[in-house]
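RESIDUES AND SHAPES:
===
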Amino acid sequence: MSMGINAKGASAETIFAIRYADELDSRMFFFKIFNMNAWLSLCLRSYFVSKILMLAVS
């Protein structure tokens, strides 16, 4: 985080994010945000892989 050093840029990003959420379906917006976080998507991927493996074994 820039910690207020680039306040103009941060506010512009916030406005863009709000407009983006308004224009798109909110679920799609949160999906995009979630996808940007590599660690979270990795966790989700490993969760689904383990689910599929459990289904395959049973």
In short: The chain has one domain: 7-57. The helical segments are 7-23, 26-36, 38-57.
